[in-house]
Amino acid sequence: MQQILLVEDDKTIALGLSYSLEKEGYGVTVCRDAACALREIQSRRFALAILDVSLPDGNGYDICRAVKAGSDTPVIFLTVYSEESSVVKGLDMGADDYVAKPFRLRELLSRVRTVLRRAGGGEKDEISIGGITVNTKQAKVVKNGVEIPLTALEYRLLMILAMNRGQLLTRSRLLEDIWDIGGDFVNDNTLTVYIKRLREKIEDDPQNPALIRTVRGLGYRMGE
Q: First-to-last CA distance in the chain?
């Protein structure tokens, strides 16, 4: 599970955002001030830091410096200041993105996923999962030496699961990621159908899947 540090002094925003991030399958540590954030940075590593610029005992810029001094952890700034000078200052310090308040939750979650994907590096030319091999350059999927024909949406769904192997992906996150990538309309029922079709093509026993596992009431996880 990827761990995110959220530094936000507004209790309502902190609670709402941490709840939404946890629903997406992330672990979240919330700090309401700079002192707490600096302690957390010194004691553990995070996959991402989301920092409010204005804090009661300091500012997000100081925390960003501390984050970047000891790691390559990506940073997203949250701020009510949308002036160009503020944005430039944050980006010049090494921030990966800058989101002005008030923000749309879906947009922020999409930016979180994008920043984490960039931080994870480029896609490998070949991904192996069980008896499945995916050639990402040719968009070709092979099982036990035999190519498996997938539709464009089935392939995108497989890649999202494969790139997040071992992590819980909620149904809402999968729907948003498929929409973000393809621009196709995919509702909850359609997702169920595509998961079923994908299992029929890649699983040895689709009725007892070993690769695409259901997490009851939450979503799916690709086996490692």
A: 13
Three-class DSSP category at 174: helix
| 132 closest CA partner among 181, 199, 192 | 199
Q: How far is CA 53 from the centre of its chain?
A: 22
Q: Where are the domains of the chain?
A: 3-119, 126-222
pTM flag (> 0.70): no
Q: At what angle do helices 152-163 and 188-202 cross, to 10 degrees?
A: 80
Q: By the 8 A CB rule, do 150 and 158 touch?
A: yes
**Predicted confidence (pLDDT) per residue in 129-158, tens digit:** 888 999 887 889 999 889 999 988 899 899
Q: What is the pLDDT of residues 40-93, one digit of tens each?
A: 998 888 999 999 988 999 889 999 999 988 788 999 998 876 556 677 777 888
Domain 3-119 is found in CATH 3.40.50.2300 = yes
Strands laid side by side in the 168-170 sheet: 168-170, 219-222, 212-215
Q: DSSP label at 124?
A: P
Q: How far apart are CA 194 and CA 197, in angstroms?
A: 5
Q: Which of 162, 138, 170 is nearest to 224 (CA)?
A: 162
CATH code for residues 126-222: 1.10.10.10
